[in-house]
Amino acid sequence: MSLSFRDIAFEHWQDCCLVSNGCMEMVVPRSFGPRVMRCGFTGGENLFKIFPDEGPGVRVRGGHRLWVAPERKEVTWVLDNDPVEFATLENGLHVTGALESSTGLQKEMTIHFGPCPNEVEIVHRIVNRNVWAIELAPWTLTQAAPGGIALSGFPPRGKHPEMLLPTHPLVMWAYTKLGDPRWTWGERFFALRQDPEAAEPQKIGLFHEHAWTAYLLGNEIFFKYSKADPTRSYPDFGCSVEIFTNRFMMELETLGPLGKLQPGESIEHTERWILLRDVKLPDLSDASIAKALQPALERVLSLQEQIS
To answer: Can you give the CATH number for the domain in which 238 is found?
Structure first.
């Protein structure tokens, strides 16, 4: 597999790099970040949301970014408006963000294209450049284009009384309404529909050792996965995966465990992305979702009980 790197103007930004393996392509800006502003099949639709350029000081641009959890405005909402450093790799790209003067943190992304042409691995890294320790968790957020459906699933189900203990948390925010018509709840899977006419946001979180979420837009699926560690503590009452929507976009989120970083130490969080095309999802039943996601779930999870 050979990669191509090309400098391009993309949307509002003149200084970007398009990376492609011939099957899928990504756009990474040089003037801010680290972020990924486009992901899709080569020549196809951008599955990520792009917001209007609001000039200096803009925080919400869209795309995929790395944040810090738990969410605090003074630490999490730090602007990523400074240029990044690029280093091309044989199988990808390494992007280093500027040192955040207000937090003492530095963020990096390493993009690896895998042996399968529709896959990519993103290694996210946060480095503590302070002279004191700080506790945090890496939090990766992908803002997807409007008009689609987010999908995710529960850990393997069981029966009573064979399984007496709880299997995972299901976490709500103050604005979560489980009866909102955008939600569809099944036994193994659940879905959240993005609706540009719905004014109120929705969000849900849960812990799954195989933290995955997917987004169906038209007949294409963006699928992302991260392996969670059940022996570690996670933010937000123990979430490894979260889904948020408002009238502008859908946001697919995975989280790493909390860690206390000494000066100079770093913490990593890895996601694997898979693109699927020509997907048919006639309804949001467990059987239909399992069939649509089967190639991705088999590839990264090997959880046959979820897709049998």
So the answer is: 2.70.98.10
